[in-house]
Design goal:
It is a single chain. It is built from 5 helices and 2 strands, in the order βαααααβ. By secondary structure, the chain is mainly alpha-helical. The protein has one domain: 434 Repressor (Amino-terminal Domain) (Orthogonal Bundle), CATH 1.10.260.
Length: about 60
Amino acid sequence: MGVKNRIKELRTEHNITQIQMAKDLQVTRQTIVAIENNHYNPSLELALKLSRYFSTTVEDIFKLD
């Protein structure tokens, strides 16, 4: 069982680049790439920042596979 996310989908819907999102969240672009490719699960703090960033819930972004 793993965790899947909708980060790339949400980012694309909002016309946000990986670079812009990384700047806004104060992380590296590589972190955004790793999360989008399911190679890295963000900390709880970053997951909460992501949910605020997209005005949605953590549960809407991250799902158990």
